[in-house]
Protein 1
Amino acid sequence: MPVVLEHLGKRFGDGAPVLDDVNATIGKGEFVALLGASGCGKSTLLNIIAGLEAPSSGALEVPSDGAAFMFQDAALFPWLTARENIELALKLRGVGKSERRIKAQELLELVHLGTAGDKRPHELSGGMRQRVSLARSLAQDRQLLLMDEPFAALDAITRDLLHDELERIWKETGRTIVFVTHNVREAVRLGQRVLLLSSRPGRVVQEWAVTEEHHTDAGLAGQLTGAITSRLREEIRRHAK
Amino acid sequence: MPSNPTPLAEAHPDAPDEGHRSVHAALTRSSSGREDLRELEAGLDSLQSDADRKHRIEWSRILLPVAALVVLVLIWQFYVSLGLKRRDLVPGPLDVLGQIGVLWGEGKLQEAVWTSLQRGLVGFLISVAIATPIGLLLAQVAPLRRAFGPLISGLQVLPSVAWVPAAIIWFGLTDATVYFVVFMGAIPSIINGLISGVDQIPPQYRRVGTVLGASRLQMALQVILPAALPGYLGGLKQGWAFSWRSLMAAEIIAVGGTIGFGLGSLLDQGRVLSDMTIVMSAILLILAVGILIELLVFGPIEKRLLRSRGLLAGSTR
């Protein structure tokens, strides 16, 4: 099991807990969508799994080599070209120079950007930037890939395409993916499993399995989306006082 | 690219999975197979990217400043020809031009410009070499910055001319005096520029560096320094301005001894001789050197840097 979370809690200073008693296990090669409204501590949870923050309580088990991380904004370095951004990830991993060149080109091809490698981030569209960012996180060569709302800022057309793209790459590379989102459709579209986090404090309140039929039958997917949405709204309503 | 009618919406006979052509985007798979996806993405990429723009010589960039200069000189000539002031107090453009010709003929102009420029550049380069490591250290080590930050900011506010009397007492009328004053002017502003450059790095960059597994040194060299470059360049520009100003101040005040003959010295000579044409010539030359350095050195570097990072769009540069 690459990721095991047991009674995980997090509070900043003396404030109310952001995460409280989070329990989850994520299997190798699994695609899990972590869904929740604003303020549910999704990003905090991801940071804890990535080792960027320490939990206040509880225990967690993560792969010893850490995790690759993809941010909401592409966070590419503007002084490097697309290719150089990917090569930097390889370089910091200790990959030799000639191998870097080959590997970076492979990754660019994988995200269908084989000819755009010498462009700077500002010359790329939002969707292209996120694909470079995806290639960079794949360059880290970690089994576990954490994604923090990576498509939230994209237009709907691009997002639909990137969903297909991400699913294809996930199948080709066999990564374990934890995908944080506040978009129910996105969670149903991508995940094999959807975990719903409550807000303030964040806690896993329910989970749904998404089968292959859901990924091809729009009617089934719509039903599941509806069910998850009403459960999510129930959670949100609790905070109306 | 309107001339390229890519058939984005057509069905592809070679695409597998012909079973469900109807697309329910957002809920289910919306493309049918790998080739279809590749083509859709290529179409979207070309729609969403800007076409490459060619860089042409922009004549307005050259002609407008020249026109502005001509207008100013004409106003100057017009004012002089009104005859409101004595000609030796307010010389006209032609008088000053004549004086510049005379100074050139005597070789004084070349000597003054060369002496000052050389001092200014050497003083500036040494300042950069001293200020850069100090700036990086202060930006990265919090206690050091808390301790020395206010002092460095204060030094930047203190006019470097204030150091001239002290420098003369310590070093006498030598080049050391001039360089000391230049250092006290340039070093604090370069340090401050670098620090503010580092401060303005988006925190996301450091997080990316951490996630990618950068060591402390790799972080400093591969992430922080390149990210801080625009701010650092701003600091260098200001550092040069401070070097040049401090140098002129030092040359005007400290004259004689083994101090060579610079533009400041020329200016002071004009004052002593009560020759307004020399004074005006010296002022114009000091200004001209400043403008040339900006146009030929800092301007192109800054423009290249900003363009490569996509920061030029919409600016009036």
Note: The mean pLDDT of chain A is 85.
Protein 2
Amino acid sequence: MNESQRQRFSDALVRVAGDEEILEMLAKIAAEDAPGLMSQLDDYVKQSELAEAARVGHALKGLLSTFETGEPTCELQPLIDAARAGDQSTVTSVHSAIQPDLNQLVSEIDALVG
Amino acid sequence: MPTGATLPQPTSTPLSKWSKAMPNLLVIDDDRTILALAEKALSPIADITTAASAAEGLAELRRGAYDAVLLDIQLPDQNGLAVYCEIREHDRRIPVIFMTVEAASNTAIEAMQLGAFDYIAKPLHVEPLRDLVEKAIEQRQISSVPVAISADDEGGDQSAELFIGRSPAMLDVFKAIGKVAKQDVPILIRGESGTGKELVARALFQYSHRSDETFLAVNCAALPDNLLESELFGHEKGAFTGAESRRIGKFEQCNGGTLFLDEIGDMAPSVQAKVLRVLQEQRFERVGGNKELTTDVRIIAATNRPLEQMVQDGDYREDLLYRLNGVTIELPPLRDRLSDVPSLIRFFLAQAKKEFNKPDLEGLSPEAVDLLTAYVWPGNVRQLRAVIRRCVLDTVMPVITPDTLPDEITGTVSVAEKTPVDDATPKQESVAGSQLPQLVRRLLDERSTNIYAEAMEYMERFVILKVLQATDGNQSQAAEMLGITRGKLRDRINSYNIVLKSDVLVEE
């Protein structure tokens, strides 16, 4: 982990009591699981399967919050709420708005893997 | 990462901080990072088994003997609350800690009200998580140790030290427990430090109509006043700096169960007022909240402080004292029941022999027993237990003889010398507080389970002495400097046997 990564994920490091080895181990798992969840979310949003979109959105939020609790992770909550409320248009718009940032976060997490 | 698997076991059974086999923790979550984090972060305190679904977790639960469960509130195949209900059906005393991304979710609060141990927000913070799991495991141990209440049961279960002994003073305690355990009234347990007040509380719980419900213990002296209030009554989000989400307090969490309030004398007036209201009306509000909540909790309180004197000094509410002491159980100090010492020795000896794996140990010599039964035991049963454990650890012979016993018991050092303080010019080593490292080392050697309390007592005595010296024995000034009430200071002076001599220049 280099200095800029330590700064970027400083909150996450505090949560794991400064143990970089643990954070790298978690990053490896998240980098494996996040793309699948994002692809499922994409499919469910497109197919209007909102209950499933809420479930996968929740799982993705949990997974990514280990590394980043602010944006874009926290932006998944409005998507989850809208999906639970059956509000397809909000789900679609939030999803397309946050997708690039989610991709960026996942690539940053992937870069943590030594 | 494989799930449903326990971490590899070393060849010999590892001991936990509780000086027994490592407790078992089951973690149920479909998020692999949570399972990995739990395995890595919690393995020093427990053996971890992981499950990625409700079905897998419940199957694992039925296969093993778990001391606590960490449960995700939203699992792919079943709602966490339903899983929780199944866990309760399997074993009501397993503490369940919920993990949730949405800390304020209704499901989490509902789970707490149904008796879940606690919940923790994701993302998980390693240190608070570890503390919480340790608390849950301790709770499990407190509420699941069986006790034998019959005073007439000669071959009875010897698993709890409370019921060892047939002295008239203890028979009275047993009878009182038998009489009041099933009565749904508050009970006040009084007795010196180390006499076993918590064991009485546990017995009262286990023989009550509420024995299948939750038993929670709170040490009122261990928390600052504002945190104690929040711990007992909960708080609303934003109630104070740092209150990031709503928290359910023990009174709400323990609905239907029994709440043990230890050190009830160490409670701020504001908390006393709220506890009184719960006792009178079973109603309260969370800190920062307006909504009146009701609860059905049986309160068992304990103290070694002179509450009547505190009432006279204006440090304790009289109405609360009368509410609490409707039924009082007085635990005698060990010096008043020395006839029980041989039975207690037998019990602690057998326990330590097994725990420290000393199969060749035969017992104590008659001379050693004579010395132990003649000693006055200022630290009561807790001290006796510590001495026996230390002897078992130290001895290399099959028989423990007087030379293995501590100096204060063999008379090499007089009792007076070992009494905490007999004037305001205590010995140099005590005043300097220099014995703390030795004390902690000794307690570690003895595998004490009371290190925090004993170290705090030592520290408290040291601080009070120093401040009294600085004020030439002026108690009002000392209380102000210490930031405690004069009543509390007087109580501590009495507890630590500090005799102030104003005509003596206090020296270090």
Note: Chain A touches chain B through 22 residues (CB under 8 Å).
